[in-house]
Protein 1
Amino acid sequence: MLYVSKRMTFSSSHRLFNPEFSDEKNVAVFDKCNNPNGHGHNYTIEVTVAGRPNPETGYVIDLKKLKMIIGKEIISKVDHKHLNHDVDFLSGIIPTAENLTVVFWRILSAAITEGELYRIKLYENENSFVEYHGEKTEITVFK
Ligand code: NI
């Protein structure tokens, strides 16, 4: 098996809060990330596709094509957006890196048709990142 990866970046703002918590509890749990008007991150997403090279092209998946899929399905929807307000597929979801990664997985696993989505790594900054391999995961959607 071979593993082919594409790394892309986007910049977004978000606010971490749970609408079912009191203001005090939101501050206690999310601290600075609960800032009412949000805050920003320069995210990096790394998408890895596993497969065997196509005998006619030598590609598991053409990286230009993988870049196009990530750009269309994810980057164009989240870059320079407020994740709590501007993105349909994140509506009602606490936009932690964990939850974003699970939602991105659902979208990309359906959109990638050559090879198979193997891993998503989502960096909020150089030193903080989430890694996911698509294990069944429930995330809470608030009304
Ligand atoms: Ni944050």
Note: Strands lie at 2-14, 39-51, 81-82, 116-125, 128-132.
Protein 2
Amino acid sequence: MSSQNIYILGIESSCDDTAASVIHNGRILSNVVASQKIHEEYGGVVPELASRAHQQNIVPVVHQAIEKAGITKNQLHAIAFTRGPGLMGSLLVGTSFAKSLAYGLNIPLIDVNHMQGHILAHFIEEDGFEKPPFPFLAMTISGGHTQIVKVDNYFDMTVIGETIDDAVGEAFDKSGKILGLGYPAGPEIDRRAALGNPKAFKFTKPKVDGLKFSFSGFKTAVLYFIQREVKANPNFISENLNDICASIQYTIIGILIDKLKLATKETGINHIAIGGGVSANSGIRKALKDGEQKFGWKTYIPKFEFTTDNAAMIAIVGYLKYLEGDFAEQDIVASARLKI
Ligand code: KG4
Ligand code: ZN
């Protein structure tokens, strides 16, 4: 990339993770994330509590990111922040903090779209990780998003498929809640799925046209199935938990892979990159890798710390925008429904 010495601070606060990262040219020097445990008690993110926790976390998190990078704030060239999409109360904390810091240091401010961050995280310079060539397909799968995006260039992206209701992470988390698992349930379902039979129980896949996704019907199907079985055998869940988890995960992966197959067919693009918390799922990683043999795909899976919400992905977008001189004004506002 550039031979200049550019240091950018990235700040992410769109949901329930307060994060800050310093990037030097394309390489990450620090990547600090403060996850908010408080939401576990409620089985989901409570917006008011998230906003309050961001206010408490943001100063120490940014301080740590700069310190760990081994620089001082006066060496920064710009401040990049998540403008949206996300929870308004959460976004406001990062946005106002970034604005005042940039103003105080008299350096440019750079607004970043969180979804572009998940996708462009693949361009962080990281040994052993190959960058996808343009054009490629990006599938962003997390607790808040489920999209397939055609990426023609860094800032030339088109959403070609997305969910019409729940995100795929919610399908994991809500199914887990029905089974009595803690929040978020995705990682535990993943762990148990490895020990169970994926074909023990059959759940029908939702029928939605083209590249659209739908997961709300799936969650209801799991609920009715469990209610029916528990009526017949009150110990049904505990006696079959690994098989139930394996069957749920198998169905969800099937839904994602079917849509990816359709997307590669429609676009003629075989390079597939994934991002978002659900891309940590071992079954999905395996299904994508298997697709290389089966369907002729080439898949790109980022380092784990860059898949869940983080600020390194905001910093890399900040860096790419900095090189283009694409800066924000001080009157910019957060946008909860910002589109790609
Ligand atoms: O990207 P992320 O940290 O936050 C946002 O939602 O933006 O993603 C969190 C989601 C949760 O729904 C969580 O259950 C899911 O990612 N997740 C997983 C796994 N690890 C995290 N889902 C399935 N398998 C996993 N191993
Ligand atoms: Zn995210």
Note: The longest strand covers residues 27-35.
